[in-house]
Structure to design on (397 residues):
């Protein structure tokens, strides 16, 4: 086969390879403590399940509008209007098969070949993959570790802006770091967007995954709603990762373009799942709240043990379901300076499986600190305690 040249620029999510390795290790009869994947080991709320079954029985199984059924576009617009401090109507919402498709479609709609796109690194690896695949120039920005946690490297972002910079990808409530920007960072970022006439993808995959306080969206900043497409997903909030439903929410002009891309790509989103998700949005939220309560207990258990390890620092995030401990000292002490050596040694010695810095975008050669990522969404509290105690003993041995 002669594979097309462009495929050499397409990246992937290497976290799935870590899953496969953990599964192979478990198949040999070993206990695995799965911290590698941002999936949930919790059932989808019954409101969504019942709503979907009803829709199937009601015959909602044919094609539907490429931008999604009007009822859910309406309901999502009302939902986001209530939480984002910006008024959206149904015409600002185009449904998607998950959150991820918004990344590629946002770039298809707004990026020309050669345009520079700012994106978080460490960050969700699909940004880098899609920018480069579609012929853009991926320009990374990062976060800086301080005594209180991580802060956005705004100076770094500003220094990277050139006359070719067109777009900014911002993932507040961030994967893999669990970081959230305070209002001051939103203001400074919005000022840069205005000054340099940029358009923004606000990846809000974890908008509702929080343990205290309230999420403030970047679109609340003056003029930002007109310049921003929100990546919305049902995957995390409703434990629907495998159902595949999300939306792109933003200015009508770009939403219409994305709807046209839908026609070309998948015709329309799944018909009956939209009714299920509608029932989830409008129905009783007690199962959703119970999920957050469970995740909070897991977060506390995991952070307590990780931050007690000699040579590890681990901040306590108020959102997402990820922890991003700094393991520089432990890796040095154990003489395991390669990320994959460290990960595999830990897996084989303890069964604890996690991803590391290298799974979240290409590291820059001048990075000195070393980080690994623990997802606590797919593992129960008792297993978290058992696994991380083994990991602590191994780190300190
Ligand atoms: N953005 C971020 C930051 C994510 O972590 C993920 C999923 N891990 C997505 C987007 C994609 O989510 P979905 O499963 O809805 O496609």
């Amino acid at each position: 086969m002669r594979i097309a040249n462009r495929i050499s620029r397409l990246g992937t999510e290497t976290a799935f390879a870590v899953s496969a390795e953990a599964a192979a290790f478990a198949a040999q009869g070993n206990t695995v403590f799965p911290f590698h994947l941002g999936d949930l080991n919790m059932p989808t709320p019954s409101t969504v399940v019942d709503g979907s079954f009803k829709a199937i029985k009601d015959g909602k199984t044919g094609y539907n509008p490429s931008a999604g059924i009007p009822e859910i576009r309406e309901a999502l617009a009302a939902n986001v209007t209530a939480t984002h401090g910006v008024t959206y109507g149904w015409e600002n919402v185009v449904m998607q098969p998950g959150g991820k498709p918004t990344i590629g479609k946002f770039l298809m709609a707004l990026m020309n070949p050669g345009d520079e796109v700012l994106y978080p690194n460490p960050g969700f690896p699909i940004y880098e993959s899609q920018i480069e695949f579609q012929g853009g120039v991926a320009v990374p920005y990062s976060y800086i570790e301080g005594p209180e946690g991580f802060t956005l490297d705004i100076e770094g972002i500003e220094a990277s802006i050139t006359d070719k910079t067109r777009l900014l990808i911002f993932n507040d409530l961030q994967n893999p770091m669990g970081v959230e920007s305070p209002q001051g960072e939103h203001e400074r970022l919005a000022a840069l967007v205005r000054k340099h006439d940029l358009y923004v993808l606000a990846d809000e995959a974890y908008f509702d995954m929080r343990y205290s306080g309230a999420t403030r969206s970047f679109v609340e900043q003056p003029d930002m709603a007109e310049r921003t497409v929100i990546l919305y997903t049902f995957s995390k909030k409703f434990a629907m990762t495998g159902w595949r439903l999300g939306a792109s929410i933003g200015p009508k002009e770009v939403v219409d373009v994305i709807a046209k891309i839908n026609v070309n790509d998948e015709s329309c989103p799944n018909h009956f799942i939209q009714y299920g998700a509608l029932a989830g949005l409008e129905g009783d939220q007690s199962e959703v709240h119970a999920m957050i309560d469970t995740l909070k207990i897991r977060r506390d258990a995991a952070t307590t043990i990780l931050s007690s390890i000699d040579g590890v620092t681990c901040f306590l995030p108020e959102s997402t379901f990820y922890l991003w401990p700094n393991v520089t000292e432990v890796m040095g002490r154990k003489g395991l300076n390669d990320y994959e050596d460290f990960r595999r040694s830990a897996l084989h010695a303890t069964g604890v499986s996690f991803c590391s810095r290298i799974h979240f975008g290409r590291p820059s050669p001048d990075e000195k600190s070393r980080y690994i990522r623990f997802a606590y969404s797919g593992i129960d509290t008792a297993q978290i305690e058992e696994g991380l105690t083994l990991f602590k003993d191994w780190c300190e041995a």
Notes: The two ends are 50 Å apart (CA to CA). Residues 47-282 form a domain with the Aspartate Aminotransferase; domain 2 fold (CATH 3.40.640.10).
